[in-house]
Specification:
Rossmann fold, alpha/beta, 200 residues, EC 1.-.-.-, NAD(P)H-dep_reductase
């Protein structure tokens, strides 16, 4: 049995032509090399959540959730930490990501999340990161300090179509993962020692 922590890397965009899978696979690869994580790469396009939030699917109600909701719930529950990969759409996060966040509550609680963002502007998707910093505390999820941003990502491809900034960002990724691992271990131990109080 592995003594590593479980890390879920979430591809937050489902838009046609999205770039999100590339940085998600990159950070997942760095996390696998880190040595402290077992990595689960979650693509929200494959998750295929129902379009409409319904009461039976939300917040661990007693009713049985639909199969897609239950499947993603199991993967989120298993995670000790998250890395969310998000583009910046109209100064915020993709609707698909907010939709997935809103489907669940206990799955996110008392766990840390790191963010990898990208965008067509110089901010590199940091408006999306700031919105996630407002959203996740409501679910009792801790956003860590460090983030990774890829500004104007479309300008950084070589003649073979390979993105050129991953290599020079690997050191920052390791720093992010070190911090994420520290918080994930601390919160995993806290969850085992004392159940998180009901906020209601």
């Amino acid at each position: 049995m592995s003594d590593k922590l479980n890390l879920a890397v979430i591809i937050g965009s489902t838009r046609e032509g999205r770039w999100a899978p590339a940085p998600a696979k990159w950070i997942a690869g760095v996390a696998e090399q880190h040595g402290g994580f077992d990595v689960d790469l979650i693509d929200l396009l494959d998750a295929d959540l129902p379009q409409h939030l319904v009461e039976d699917d939300m917040w661990s109600t007693e009713a049985d959730p639909s199969a897609p909701v239950a499947a993603l719930s199991e993967r989120l529950h298993r995670a000790d930490a998250f890395v969310v990969v998000s583009g910046e759409y109209n100064m915020s996060i993709p609707a698909s990501l907010k939709h997935a966040i809103d489907y669940y509550m206990n799955e996110w609680a008392a766990k840390p999340v790191g963010m990898v963002t990208y965008g067509g502007k110089i901010t590199g998707g940091q408006n999306a990161a700031q919105h996630l910093r407002q959203i996740f505390p409501e679910l009792r999820t801790m956003t860590i300090r460090n983030t990774i941003a890829f500004p104007r990502f479309y300008q950084h491809f070589d003649d073979r179509g390979e993105f050129t900034k991953f290599g020079e960002t690997e050191s920052a990724a390791k720093t992010l993962l070190d911090e994420l691992h520290w918080w994930a271990l601390a919160l995993a131990n806290a969850r085992k020692a004392t159940p998180l109080p009901n906020p209601f």
